[in-house]
Amino acid sequence: MTRNVCLSLLLSLVFVSNAFSQNIFELKGKNIILTSDKIAFGWKNSYHDNFGKIYNAESLKKYKFSSKNLYKGDIIGKPLFVNDVRIINQSNNKKKAILISFDMHSDTLVMYLPLYLKTNDYIGGFRVDVEVNPEEISLCYHNCDEINRTKNQIQNKRFYFKGKNELFIFDNISIEKDLLCVQYSDKTSQKYQYYISAYSTNYRHNNNSFNTFTSSILFEDDLISQCKQKYDNAYIAALTDSLLNKEIYLSSGAKRGFYICENISIENIGTKEPCYNYIFTLRQEEDIIKLPIQNDMSHIVLADIYREEQRIKEEQRQREEAEYQSMLEKEEREYKASLIKKYGKKNALLILENAVQIGFTKEMCVEAWGEPYDINRTVTKNGVHEQWVYDIGRYLYFDGNILTAIQD
Q: Is the four-CA dihedral 107, 113, 114, 115 of positive or negative sign?
């Protein structure tokens, strides 16, 4: 997954250790604050009396690092500008050493780091010197330039902890002795602190707590940027141009109706964790609803377009209704004409009024009342008699094919 913009920016500022050693020579030109008077070397954080002592500027004239040139003040916790880091005695038989010269206020001071240290071990009657690898020198400090640059980048930035939907804001980054203090607050102005160990020139002793902290948060700016990347800019611009501050019709959901589109913005619609999306804010008098944007926005149309569509649909409905009525009238005329032709005008009019009379044939009765629910048939020597049963209390009686009685 691609790291978000602000997080990448923070990590690129190298607030804490990256995957590689911070070479001590890279201190040159930086504003730093030392957090400890213990400067270690080697794999086991070894210390030595002559290692990392501070001398005044006089010692630089002839590279005389004697006790009379020792600086007697305290430099821990004070701003220092490193104006040079170099190795001396590389081309002669003298012991090599690293000199770190720095300015503290108006004073120029020198840190002396010998690269050969005497031990109490002897081989063949000779004292053994230990060679110091510059990459294993562990000098703990705060990089003021990076602190200030990072402070400018994240101050007032809003963020979430992953998996939670509570919004915080960065307030400040300050130095408290050997720790960096990241200060932030919530929406109620409740203050929180997160402490980070000092920087080191030896990556083996670096603390990754700031990495841990930043990997556990989501910056609001990044969430907004990710939301923007989900949609084509032209699509959002077209929606904004066509709908913002205009009357629309919402055609789906429980609150269908006419609204004014008051705003199109990116908001957090998450519940358990942040989820940023484009939101339509719709108002209908005092009723306000918020709708997430979708790739298919056919359920929101301009009110004028909706009304025009409804007018066209109504005209079409009326036209179809008229056509249907015309068809019914035509069929009725044709049916009436066929009845007159078969039974005469008087009988045809009775049939059209669903009326029967004595003397009607079975066919004429079916035309007037429809088919019976049941037929009771009686056969006598005088012929066949039938009772046609319709609704309760409605009966027709036939002798042969002729209606002879009506019970209604």
A: negative
Query: CA angle, 107 as apex, 105 and 112 as ends, to 5°?
Result: 120
Specify the higher pLDDT residue, 350 or 12.
350
Of 77-81, 186-190, 372-376, 379-383, where does mean pLDDT reach its minimum? 379-383
363: Cβ contacts below 8 Å, ≥ 6 apart: none
Count other C-beta atoms under 10 Å from residue 239's C-beta.
Answer: 18
CA 30 to chain centre: 38
Structure tokens that stand for 79 in this block: 């701003």
Start-to-end Cα distance in the chain: 86
Q: Evaluate the CA torsion angle 170, 173, 176, 180 in order and state its sign.
A: positive
3-class SS letters over 135-180: HHCECEEEEHHHHHHHHHHHCCCEEEECCCCCEEEEEEEEEECCEE
Residue linked to tokens 């923007």: 228
Whether 16 and 141 have beta carbons less than 8 Å apart is answered as no
Lowest-confidence segment of 18-27, 208-217, 220-229, 335-344 by average pLDDT: 18-27
Contact 385, 378 (CB under 8 A): yes
**CA-based angle 347:353:354, to the nearest 5?**
90
How many of the other CB atoms lie within 10 Å of CB of 241?
9
198 DSSP assignment: P
CATH 3.30.1450.10 in the chain: give the residue spans. Answer: 352-408
Give CA–CA dist 95/115, Å, rounded: 7
- Residue entry with tokens 């006790």: 67
Alpha helices in 50-113 (DSSP H): none
| Cα of 298 vs its chain's centroid, Å | 23
Report the CATH number of the 352-408 domain.
Answer: 3.30.1450.10
Q: What count of other Cβ atoms lies within 10 Å of the Cβ of residue 235? A: 13
User: Are residues 109 and 56 in contact, defined by beta-carbon separation less than 8 angstroms?
Assistant: yes
Q: Is the pLDDT of residue 146 over 60?
A: yes
Q: Span 42-49, mean pLDDT?
A: 56
Q: Is pLDDT at 180 greater than 70 in this prediction?
A: yes
Residues in the chain: 408
User: Rounded distance, CA 307 to CA 316, Å?
Assistant: 14
